[in-house]
C-alpha cells in the first residue's frame, strides 16, 4: 500500500468527532507516518499512535499539527530526495482529502517537496484547511548544517534548497506564523512574523530536534519565542530513535503568550497527543498589559542608520 493511502487510512478515524470545538491538538509522531514508507511488520506495529490521534479527535480537536518530516525519514543520505513530490502530488493530495473528510485543519511540517532538480528538495511546511485546500506553504529558510557535539554531522543543504519567503496565513485560530525546526534559533524571523506580518496567535514549529540539542535548548528556545512575540507557540516534535544514525528528542509542547507551558505529553518519548484551547483574549490581554509593540526602538534606529 502506498504511503499516502496507508497514512490516510490510519488517520481516517479522526473524522468522527473532529468538528465539535475550536481546540488545537499537537501530535507527537514516534515514527508514525515517517516510518510507513517502508511499511512492513515494524511499521504496522505503530498503529497505536494513530488510535491515540483518534482519541484527540474525540476531544474536539479542530486543528491537527504534525512534526517535521512527518511523511518520511530516510536511513541513508539522499533517500528523501528520491521520494520527494510536488505539492499537487499524490501524498499531499491524499492529506487534502483527509482534511476535507475530517473537517479539520492540518499543519504538515517538513514535507519533502520536489525541488528544482532531481538532487534537491524543499523542506516545506504546509497548511491545509478544513475544506481540503492548501492555504499556504513555507519553505524552511534556515538549513541545519552543523556538527553536533557528541553526536554527528548534519548537512541539510546537501539535498535541500533553502526557502526565501516569510509566511503567515489567516485561519479561524488567528494569523499563523510558519516556521520549521532549526528556524527556532533565529529570533529575528519570529520578530518579523509578529511585528512585520502581525502573527496574532500561533507560531508553529514542527521539528525533529536532535537528542543532544533538544536536551540543551528545546524548551528554553520555545518559551523565549513565545515570550518575546507574545504569541502561542505550538511545537510538534518527532521522538525516539528512527534508525541507527538518527534520534529525535521529542517533547511536543504548547506554550501560551506569557511563556507558560499549557500542554505537553507525560514524558518526552511518549507517543500520543496534547490538547489545548487557543484563547484570543489572552493574547490581547498579555499584549495590552505589556505593550512591547509600542516600546520597540530598533525599527526606527534601523531606518536612520
Automatic annotation (TrEMBL):
Residues 22-280 form the CN hydrolase domain. InterPro entries: C-N_Hydrolase (IPR003010), C-N_Hydrolase_sf (IPR036526), Nit1/2_C-N_Hydrolase (IPR045254). Keywords: Hydrolase, Signal. One of its GO terms (molecular function) is hydrolase activity, acting on carbon-nitrogen (but not peptide) bonds, in linear amides. Residues 1-18 form the signal peptide. PANTHER family: DEAMINATED GLUTATHIONE AMIDASE, NITRILASE-RELATED. This is CN hydrolase domain-containing protein. It comes from Leersia perrieri.
Amino acid at each position: 500500500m502506498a504511503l499516502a493511502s496507508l497514512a490516510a487510512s490510519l488517520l481516517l478515524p479522526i473524522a468522527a468527532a473532529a468538528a465539535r470545538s475550536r481546540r488545537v491538538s499537537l501530535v507527537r509522531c514516534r515514527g508514525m507516518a515517517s516510518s510507513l514508507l517502508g511499511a512492513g511488520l515494524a511499521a504496522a506495529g505503530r498503529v497505536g499512535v494513530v488510535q491515540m490521534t483518534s482519541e484527540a479527535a474525540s476531544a474536539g480537536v479542530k486543528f491537527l499539527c504534525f512534526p517535521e518530516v512527518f511523511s518520511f525519514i530516510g536511513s541513508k543520505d539522499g533517500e528523501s530526495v528520491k521520494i520527494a513530490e510536488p505539492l499537487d502530488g499524490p501524498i499531499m493530495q491524499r492529506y487534502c482529502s483527509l482534511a476535507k473528510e475530517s473537517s479539520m485543519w492540518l499543519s504538515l511540517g517538513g514535507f519533502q517537496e520536489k525541488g528544482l532538480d532531481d538532487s534537491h528538495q524543499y523542506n516545506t511546511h504546509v497548511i491545509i484547511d478544513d475544506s481540503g485546500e492548501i492555504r499556504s506553504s513555507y519553505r524552511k529558510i534556515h538549513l541545519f548544517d552543523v556538527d553536533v557535539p557528541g553526536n554527528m554531522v548534519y548537512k541539510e543543504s546537501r539535498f535541500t534548497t533553502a526557502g526565501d519567503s516569510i509566511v503567515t496565513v489567516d485561519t479561524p485560530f488567528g494569523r499563523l506564523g510558519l516556521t520549521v525546526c532549526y528556524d527556532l534559533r533565529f529570533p529575528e524571523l519570529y520578530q518579523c512574523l509578529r511585528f512585520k506580518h502581525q502573527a496574532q496567535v500561533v507560531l508553529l514549529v514542527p521539528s525533529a530536534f536532535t537528542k543532544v540539542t533538544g536536551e540543551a535548548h528545546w524548551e528554553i528556545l520555545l518559551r523565549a519565542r513565545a515570550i518575546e512575540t507574545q504569541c502561542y507557540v505550538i511545537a510538534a516534535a518527532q521522538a525516539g530513535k528512527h534508525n541507527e544514525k538518527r534520534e529525535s528528542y521529542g517533547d511536543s509542547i504548547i506554550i501560551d503568550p506569557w511563556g507558560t507551558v499549557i500542554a505537553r505529553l507525560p514524558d518526552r518519548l511518549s507517543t500520543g497527543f496534547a490538547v489545548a484551547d487557543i484563547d484570543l483574549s489572552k493574547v490581547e490581554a498579555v499584549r495590552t498589559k505589556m505593550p512591547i509593540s509600542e516600546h520597540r526602538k530598533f525599527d526606527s534606529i534601523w531606518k536612520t542608520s
